[in-house]
């Protein structure tokens, strides 16, 4: 049964102000960005917090900076912004594609990259695309900033490596360079869908061989995951049909998906391999 | 003389704009949630925490502050604790010592000043039940039916028998048998269930809300509320969609709210949130059917045997009639001399299933249309040629012995759909499990062909005699016009618009002078529930005839008053007579309102006298008329992921006279979309705790705009001449047959037939890879 309770929402104007609020247990609140996850959780019986700190529209975390070899994307950047940004399309096409599959236009307009990462759902649409960049998350608190590699950021089901006083401020994501990125999501329908399985990949093929490879899956484990065994199989090899067959089978053997309301374990296992195949064919 | 009059533009057949569009588009239409009721209390239903057991106690927590809060339980029911549905077995609220039959069965109602307080109080009511083992699903029930038929608990049985089955099988060259399953489907109207019950000073009640059939509560709650029909007044608020979901269920909701309203003496509103609405209101009946069909080498059907079992849930409610409609659609569309159909309604310990667009017909058509394709494949015939060969035509006898009339567009629907969809050519492109040259995805095209019996089953309309009035009134602008007084409800399907068209044509009056107030049982005669694809056909005819009756009264009055007795005609909103100067309708109407106190045209529907129906043997004329349709679906399946996309759907329909081609096509596209969801997406099961497992919009997946294919919708018109303007049923037909067309397309794409709905990528994968793992 839905109950509406009073929530004290603080709306700091600057990041510094927000960090000060979060530093003190007495003023600290649940971080609220676009609200697209929290509003749903609050409406469906998750205990409503007493306080929330809004980081929506904080100027310091709402921009994309193009550096020499990476993009630094503010945590408050919306999915709609990612979809529209030509720099993201050029340097991080898997992330642009992933953002385009989030919910529908309304959710994309409100939901943020930082919020999607902080919500830490194994089905978070942007997570696999973030993982394959080999980049990192920048966290801030009143005592300074620290950087956490993305492949260590999601520590367990719905857990992230962040202290209660920290705010995700940005993602530092290396550009793909000459590598190819791909993204594919199998959802429950064609829009407004949560994924059953999804995959992102960043693969560099030079002189006929796979020089570097990163493949990540979502919705098949408690956290978004890199397929390190499959990556190890592929590294340095020629992407032959036989190798692709082997990678597909290895992916299927290496994942331990669960059955839930959206899909079956069997299908998820099979589809994991199929999406690995899709990442490798016609490179 | 007639030539000098202006040419009359008929509205029937025209794309007349929706009369309710303005208020809905601007947001000025006031739904239940927009209305204010002084002194209102909010009701929350207290429910059983287990699916089955003996109710021991309903105890309010003494540590909770109950000041100003009312808890009504079975002992507060003024009369006998039973709701009149099609049997009298369901209590309004479960009794102490009585059996709980489904998880969530109401045991009490809490009413408090705010919804939050009511919810908090309801959570503090302890419901004690001595648990008994439940039987939760149709799967379990069918397993019992197969292994120990004597223990199978059927709430209703009905057979249809034509000819001699043994004779038919003996004449067959081959016999094909298969089983077909489909699960629940949620109506998912935009506006959740909700209504308010206002107790009146004289002890009567007024119920107002999102109610599809206002007369149902009037006649179904007399026992528990101890009120005669005239003391239960029901008024419709604008309805944000219903699809059958607000047919029988609001009766129960009126009952829950009424018990709390009568106890508290205050208006009580119960309005569900989406989660509660999905969890505890009726769904489409899950079905299991088993077809055993005999046929000759040339394809002639010699015998059809069908077992057809619906999951009725915990109480019968209206499931008998849903099953009747199901068995009447199991074999109606094909020629066969020896038919036996055995229908049953299984009892399970789950929320009673109920009305949903199609009402048993989609479940029946899902089986037979899959099976006919399977027989065609066995015979080496194409699905189109085979259906053209065996489909029923005018003069043929249905399984109940009804002779199909000439007002029958069956063959036209089939031929036109095949031509428009270019079916024969596309059939050659089907992948059948192997990508053809140039194909990146498996491609399949599938056909279905079916009828929908319009209006009440059998002699229902003959017995019911739908009544309606069309009467003079001063409209909102203070000028005279006409009110349509029928109990048919607008719920998005467009009845206010088509009845305005019909009345305007009959009266030859400006449609702006016609008003169709929301139904109120104190003001409208009983023209029946808004169900069964009967409204335009049956009540449309009542409106037409009542309007003609009113017209003749106006003309008679005008003849005497203005034309010295010369015959007057109402034409183009004016009264005209030979040799006289025409008089505006408004002037004559004002005179009639002032001098006669008004005027009212009336009509009571009757069926042709030669209709024959035997309700015990199910022999005779099972429906007054049949609508027909053929659907062609084109689909693609991605071999990489088994994801399925419907690319194009062609639907050709004979719905008799098309009153409004735009709203009709809209209804068709909406129904096809709902059918697409039924076929591919809408999966909801009963968990071991007795609750539905997909009870949120996040988990109950209906199609979005992106899931909807390109539609090609065409009508062929074979009007029902007995009831001008000649409509047959439309509302349910588009929901009936797309699922098997899609399933047939899937079979053509992957070479494997799937016999369980919905057809998900998981199901396709499992069909293609019987042992998990590995690539195709």
Describe the structure.
The complex is a heterodimer of chains A (about 280) and B (about 775). With about 280 residues, chain A is α+β, with helices and mostly antiparallel strands. Chain A folds into three domains: about 10-55; about 60-175, Uridine Diphospho-n-acetylenolpyruvylglucosamine Reductase, domain 3 (2-Layer Sandwich); about 180-280, Enolase-like, domain 1, CATH 3.30.390.50. In chain A, about 30% of the residues lie in helices and about 25% in strands. In chain A, the strands form four sheets. In chain A, strands 4-5-10-6-7 form a five-stranded antiparallel beta sheet. In chain A, strands 11-12-13-14 form a four-stranded antiparallel beta sheet, sandwiched between helices. Chain A is globular, with a radius of gyration of 19 Å. Chain A starts with 7 loop residues before the first strand and ends with a helix. The mean pLDDT of chain A is about 95. Chain B is α+β, with helices and mostly antiparallel strands. Chain B has a seven-stranded mixed beta sheet with strand order 3-5-1-12-9-10-11, sandwiched between helices. Helix content of chain B is about 30%, strand content about 25%. The chains are: A alpha+beta (about 280), B alpha+beta (about 775). The interface of A and B includes residues 4 and 275 of A.
